[in-house]
Amino acid sequence: MTKVFIGIMGLLLISLLLRLNNFSRENNMVQLAIETVRIQADLPGDVEVKFVEKWESSIPDFYAVKLLVIKADKEIPMVVYVDRAADKVIVGSLFIKGENITRREAADSGIAKIDVGYLETGKTSLAY
User: Fold this and answer.
1) If residue 65 lies in a helix (H) or strand (E), which one and from where to where?
2) What is the three-class DSSP state of 31?
3) pLDDT in tens, 12-22
4) For the chain, which residues make up each domain, given as ranges?
5) Per the confidence metrics, is the pTM higher than 0.70?
């Protein structure tokens, strides 16, 4: 009886550790996406970047991570692509058969072009 109990507890512990590891990897993906956008767009400290959602992208082994860039009264949705290992990030537009998938996935605002320079950033102007 004790061996069965210990076995069940061991399985529960392993399950919990696997979930925590998965949560940590997902958190790393989101943090990597946010930091990459901040660095690439040279965003000042008063511009907030919030995580909205994450899903499997059309790029094999990558997730689409939707973010919201917020400054004063402006909210601009953005999508970046992060690999499963949270090592690589693709910032820019993904086109499939001539359709701008990134713009469609960012949706919400109806903004056709996002110029992060519009957010009064530093020297860099990142066109979306």
Assistant:
1) strand 62-71
2) helix
3) 767 665 554 44
4) 2-119
5) no
